[in-house]
Design goal:
- The complex is a heterotrimer.
- Chain A is 78% helix and 0% strand.
- Chain A has a domain of 229 residues.
- Chain A is globular, with a radius of gyration of 21 Å.
- In chain A, helix 4 runs parallel beside helix 6 and helix 4 packs across helix 11.
- The mean pLDDT of chain A is 89.
- Chain A is an all-alpha fold.
- Helices cover 47% and strands 17% of the residues of chain B.
- Chain B has 11 helices and 12 strands.
- Chain B folds into 2 domains: 140 residues, Response regulator (Rossmann fold), CATH 3.40.50.2300; 162 residues, Rossmann fold (3-Layer(aba) Sandwich), CATH 3.40.50.
- A 6-stranded parallel beta sheet of chain B has the order 2-1-3-4-5-11, sandwiched between helices. Chain B has a 6-stranded mixed beta sheet with strand order 7-6-8-9-10-12, with helices on both faces.
- Chain C is α/β, with parallel strands linked by helices.
- In chain C, strand 1 and strand 2 form a beta hairpin.
- In chain C, helix 14 runs parallel beside helix 15.
- Chain C is globular.
- The C terminus of chain C is likely disordered.
- Classes of the chains: A mainly alpha, B alpha/beta, C alpha/beta.
- Chains A and B meet through helix 1, helix 2, helix 3, helix 6 and helix 13 of A and helix 1, strand 2, helix 3 and helix 4 of B.
């Protein structure tokens, strides 16, 4: 069995297993799985409106997934995507409400602001890791809380336009498009998906085709060998965290400039950053894999909203199915062993 | 050999595709049937979208859902497409999708529960001018949206009076959810009530920053009781559940100690029969049912804001715990203040700013 | 003479690849039987078949004359077959006894009876002269001792037949001597031993008979007393092997590397290189002889910039290297074949092609405006693979998939190709077979003949004596003597390496 085929089959099997176990759970708890999965499918693709919502939901998932995957390829575990996402969201909205500029300047400026904010937020753990070998997992988790509460404070005290949220961004900074909304019968679909796809291409190109990517990957695989080969391990660690944070920041901009157009005080984490971890894992930390994994997660998320209404299945069950898929991907080692057995027998 | 395996995988995918395709088809049929059925019965259907708390938050959302259920019962409707239903949101991004879904499903009236849904309701109402919407706790100025506000401060004021009369240590706690206008109304009213009944009592105000973190609520409550507060009021949704847990635990350990908690939104005495002094009720259920009834009768208050206060029985104080030593005094005082508020001689402050100038006789 | 183990006409396939083709091995009771072959010849596969890890496609295994089917290692254990693995399988934090009884704990009422176990372990240890302290922690004992724990483990489980997989690869010369003694004691006590190795000297010293395999095929079995190293080597490699690498007299020229008063501290802050002086000239190979742990690694790391030096000076063609980054040092003209090829030498998850440009990827023509030119990288890799005889399915194969010898050839190809003024080779032939060693020695001498300076660090005295033009003996972080290989003996070097007799051996002067 070729390696590539195996790499593709593993997540697919994980998804199928997740669905099968989900079916069993539904049967055991007395729900109708056919109706449930039908509702799930229709809730994601049954109507152009929902497809629009799926794509809208997929956009931040792709970027958050890229953020996690990018850091992971350099051997770092960026748990702080959530925090970088939040600061990116705020930065984009802040630029969006505070300036009044032509769209061609305003929109890119808002996105760049989100990128810079996310980048700075990730730079700190990167620096601490490179300089003092402080473990990035701990620092990034803490940075998430700092981000959440600082951003809430800023919204409440600096940008509050009543009801604990910022004002709406100017149209010149908005990713929304009446045309996109029209063709999807008023979904919240916006242009962000284009940016997310550009992000995928960018990550693939940077890692696989450039000199810098060569170094980043080398550091990810073997720091000692990278050091021996004359690469600056510390520089690459910081750089990878910053780029990862930029992705996360842009993911935040998608929400601020596209989905919402404002930012409200957050009662807790949005979950986008943490879903990014699952997306990256399912996507095998490659750009194309992240794209498809995000698509799956987005479809499940949006499709799940219709399940209670159409099939009477509690949406918690969908969370369980998503969790099962992640579980099976995480234990892909087992699937791999089974595939190898399968492969060996065939050879005989 | 490899080819064979690939073929197997491919056929699996295809099979899955056809299966799903078939599912899609069959569903279309049922959908048509459903809409046909709808036309026949012509019931006035109502649905609501909760925030992330869900209908079992023992508070705000649950109360709204109770209103819908009551409406359904009265009109002989069932949960589902031909009657009433709800959708729960898992994140802020789901609000508009959920509102849209319900309105597309053909519900005549869709409620957005909570001020967080302001923008989503505003937007969807514009996109779907033929559908009716309602929002709780905020104002959306669209002709097809009914806005519902409450004078939470009035209920909180009475709760403050009760707390002030019951406290022995003259130290009282307040746990808020997030710093938003609704909760500020609770805080201002409560502080005013304490001040009016017992000016020397001190209130320790803390915000948890979330409506769904019971463990956080418990931590804050534990600190408050440890520092000598003997009555704690919460306006923090499910976060407040931690308060009742802590109070019940403390009471169990030391039954002689004065430990009281005051609930919010609905009568929360079931959360701790020994420790819940009373609750500052916000009758979201009544308001929801009221709006639904009006809409059913063709008198949908679109474009209007209805404010529910003591006067309208939209807010109020739950019966005081019979085990409370000061029950009689509380009942008496509450009666007096209620009358004063109802006749307008006392205006309870709705913001901390107004609280500063509030003087109670 | 009865055979305790007979492996008759064993054939083992992996897909289309035949790892063992009709191999026969017969082990007599009480003998040390060597299994000789190049890396990748199929020795380990054959032993894994015997140990129950693989099932043979054809052939028969007999234990004491009875045909048996060994389908898993537990059956092998029950038949009295024990394996001393090359990579020890010990729990660092456990004591010797705990490791030995792991999986075979003696319990009384659910509790492990450590006392009893310790006594048993001590008894076995004494009987076979292993001198192992049953209470010592694994992390606190030497590699040689850990190997003895592995031996004890097999004996404790009642092994009659012991398989040693490349046991001397990780040992110091002194430890090797002791191991050979232990093997002889084991035989005296009635055990039989299969010794997997490619070191001819050990076979000559300890083995009774030797079975040679080459490229998966059994070549034959010889009585060691009736053969000599040359014959064995020829059997193993399939052609004439030159032991004493032929080389012309070197013509040293100007100083290339000049190290003065170098002090380097290790991770614990101890000055392990302590005032080291050394020069290496163009057109010569300087071999550094010394017992492991006398500062060799730190010395090399300091030259290559991988470790910060405390004080002193390192000059390459009059350019100071101290304080420069590894990249600058590489660019100045230093090539480095690192001691640990997996840790430093290769990115194992990179294709062999990308490993070939590990230090030069950013330069033209491999990179242009920050974009990699894979066409150039692949053509460079192809050239080096052909030139240095790296056996790999293709230049796209991951470095991980190559055998140790081919990985080393790839590294040497890469380093030599950069044509550095100074080539540092640290343990370049560790774990390699005779054919690969010969190849590598030739390449080092070739560099010298091209007028480059070569610094060779090795724990193998043979290698040092064979390849070097001058030998510098390192002891406790200092060069204590520089000798001419033609005018010295292994005995003298051994004494110098042990730190004694410093005065008599000369005062660190040029020879």
């Amino acid at each position: 069995m070729s390696k590539r085929l195996r790499n593709i089959l593993t997540p697919l099997i994980a998804v199928v297993l997740g669905i099968i176990v989900g079916t069993i759970i539904m049967l055991v708890s007395g729900y109708d799985p056919v109706a449930a999965y039908t509702a799930l499918w229709n809730g994601a693709f049954g109507d152009v409106y929902y497809t629009g919502e799926v794509i809208r939901q997929v956009t931040p998932y792709i970027l958050a997934g890229l953020a996690v995957a990018f850091a992971f390829r350099v051997g770092l575990f960026n748990i702080g995507v959530e925090g970088q996402f939040i600061v990116g969201w705020l930065a984009a909205v802040w630029v969006g409400v505070s300036f009044d500029l032509p769209k061609i300047i305003h929109l890119p400026l808002a996105i760049i602001a989100a990128m810079v904010a996310g980048g700075i937020w990730a730079f700190i753990p990167g620096l601490l890791k490179a300089r003092f070998r402080v473990h990035e997992v701990i620092v990034t988790i803490m940075m998430n809380y700092i981000a959440l509460h600082s951003v809430n404070y800023i919204i409440n005290n600096k940008l509050n336009q009543g009801s604990s949220k910022t004002g709406m961004i100017h149209d010149s900074a908005s990713l929304r498009s009446p045309w996109l909304q029209e063709i999807t019968t008023h979904s919240t679909l916006h242009w962000g998906i284009i940016i997310a796809i550009i992000g995928c291409v960018f990550m693939w190109f940077l890692l696989e085709k450039t000199t810098r990517g060569f170094e980043l990957r080398a550091v990810g695989f073997n720091q000692d060998a990278a050091h021996y080969a004359g690469m600056s391990v510390n520089k690459n660690i910081i750089l990878s965290m910053v780029i990862s944070g930029c992705f996360a920041g842009v993911a935040g901009a998608m929400e601020g400039l596209g989905t919402f157009g404002y930012m409200a005080v957050q009662g807790g984490f949005t979950g986008v950053g943490f879903n990014g971890i699952a997306v990256a894992l399912l996507g095998g930390n490659t750009a194309i894999g992240v794209f498809f994994a995000a698509l799956l997660f987005g479809a499940l998320k949006i499709g799940a909203l219709s399940m209670p209404l159409e099939a009477g299945v509690p949406k918690e069950l969908v969370d369980i199915i998503i969790a099962l898929i992640v579980f099976f991907v995480a234990s892909s080692y087992i699937i791999r062993i089974v595939l190898d057995r399968f492969g060996k027998k065939e050879v005989k | 050999m490899k080819k064979r395996k690939f073929g197997l995988a491919l056929s699996l995918v295809l099979a899955a595709g056809t299966l799903l395709g078939a599912c899609g088809k069959s569903n279309d049929d049922t959908k048509n049937n459903a809409s046909k059925g709808e036309n026949k019965e012509k019931a006035y259907t109502v649905a609501m979208v909760t925030d992330v708390g869900g209908v079992d938050d023992k508070s705000f959302n649950q109360s709204a859902w109770k209103g819908l259920q009551d409406y359904g019962k009265e009109n002989g409707l069932e949960k589902g497409k031909n009657g009433f239903d709800y959708l729960q949101s898992t994140s802020d991004a789901d609000y508009s999708t959920n509102l849209n879904t319900l309105s597309r499903q053909g519900y005549n009236l869709v409620f957005g529960i909570g001020f967080l849904m302001h923008n989503a309701v505003d937007e969807i109402a514009q996109q779907q001018p033929k559908s009716n919407f309602a929002i709780i706790d905020d104002e959306v100025k669209q002709p097809n949206v009914a806005s519902v506000l409450f004078k939470e401060q009035e209920a909180a004021f009475l709760a403050g009076v009760a707390a002030a009369l019951q406290t022995k240590s003259n130290k009282i706690g307040f746990i808020g959810g997030m710093k938003i206008p609704v909760i500020e109304r609770f805080e201002a009213g409560f502080l005013a009530g304490v001040q009016a009944a017992k000016p020397e009592a001190k209130v320790d105000v803390q915000y948890s920053g979330a409506f769904d973190k019971a463990e956080l609520g418990q931590t804050i409550a534990s600190k408050m009781y440890a520092s000598g507060d003997d009555v704690v009021f919460h306006a923090a949704g499910a976060t407040g559940n931690g308060l009742f847990k802590e109070a019940t635990d403390l009471k169990k350990k030391n039954p002689d100690k004065e430990i009281w908690a005051i609930g919010v939104d609905q009568d929360q005495s079931f959360m701790g029969p020994d420790v819940v002094l009373t609750s500052a009720m916000k009758r979201v259920d009544l308001a929801v049912k009221d709006v639904a009834d009006k809409a059913k009768d063709g008198k949908f208050p679109g474009g209007q804001t209805t404010v529910y206060g003591l006067h309208e029985d939209g807010v109020g104080l739950a019966p005081v715990n019979s085990k409370a030593s000061a029950k009689d005094a509380i009942d008496k005082a509450v009666k007096e203040w209620t009358a004063k508020i109802k006749d307008g001689s006392v205006k309870v402050p709705g913001t901390l700013k107004e609280l500063k100038t509030f003087k109670a006789q | 003479m009865e055979y305790v183990i007979e492996m008759l006409n064993i054939r083992k396939e992996f897909g289309n690849f035949v790892a063992n083709d009709n191999i026969t091995l017969q082990l007599k009771k009480g003998e040390i039987h060597a299994l000789l072959g190049e890396n990748g010849a199929g020795k380990t596969t054959l032993m894994n078949v015997l140990f129950g890890l693989y099932q043979p496609e054809q052939g028969e295994i007999r234990v004491k004359g009875k045909p048996v089917k060994i389908s898993n290692p537990n059956i092998a254990n029950d038949l009295g077959i024990g394996m001393v693995h090359q990579h020890f399988m010990l729990v660092d934090k456990f004591t010797v006894t705990e490791n030995i009884i792991l999986g075979k704990e003696i319990t009384t009422g659910g509790r492990i009876n450590l006392k009893k176990a310790e006594k048993e372990v001590r008894d076995i240890s004494e009987r076979y002269g292993l001198a192992v302290d049953p209470q010592a922690k694994i992390s606190e004992i030497s590699v040689g001792m850990q190997q003895r724990v592995e031996i004890l483990k097999t004996l404790y489980r009642g092994a009659e037949i012991l398989i040693f997989d490349e046991p001397t690869a990780v040992l110091t010369p002194q430890e090797i001597k002791e191991l050979i003694q232990i093997m002889k004691t084991l035989i005296k006590e009635g055990k039989s031993i299969i010794l997997i190795t490619h070191k001819l000297r050990e076979i000559m010293e300890v083995a009774d008979r030797c079975t040679v395999i080459r490229k998966g095929k059994g070549i034959g079995t010889v009585n060691v007393s009736e053969t000599n190293p040359n014959e064995l080597a020829n059997l193993m490699v399939g052609r004439e092997v030159v032991f004493k690498t032929e080389k012309k007299e070197g013509i040293p020229k100007e100083d290339v590397l000049d190290v003065k008063d170098l002090v380097v501290k290790d991770a614990r802050g101890i000055a392990v290189v302590n005032g080291l002086n050394l020069t290496v000239r163009a057109g010569e190979i300087v071999g550094i002889a010394g017992v492991d742990g006398n500062g060799q690694s730190e010395f090399i790391e300091a030259i290559t910039g991988l470790r910060k030096a405390e004080s002193g000076s390192i000059k390459l063609n009059d350019n100071e290297l101290m304080g420069l980054t590894p990249r600058k040092i590489t660019e100045t003209g230093v090539g480095h074949i690192p001691q640990d090829r997996h840790k430093h030498g290769l990115v194992l998850n990179y294709p062999i092609a990308e490993n070939m440009v590990l230090q030069t990827y950013y330069k033209k023509p491999f990179s242009k405006n920050g974009i990699l030119n894979f066409k150039e990288i692949y053509s460079k890799a192809k050239k080096l693979i052909a030139e240095f005889d790296v056996r790999t399915p293709s230049e796209y194969a991951l470095a991980r998939a190559l055998s140790g010898g081919n990985q080393q050839k790839a590294i040497i190809g890469r380093e030599v190709d950069r044509n550095p003024d100074l080539l540092i080779a640290a343990q370049p032939t560790r774990g390699l077979d005779v054919g690969a060693i010969e190849f590598i020695h030739k390449r080092l001498i070739e560099q010298r003949d091209n007028g480059k300076a070569v610094l060779l660090v090795s724990f193998e005295l043979d290698e040092i004596m064979n390849v070097s033009d001058r030998i510098a003996v390192i002891y406790e972080g200092r060069i204590v003597a520089v000798v001419n290989p033609k005018e010295t003996t292994e005995q003298e070097l051994g004494l110098l390496m042990a730190g004694s007799n410093r005065k008599e051996a000369g005062e660190g002067t040029h020879v």
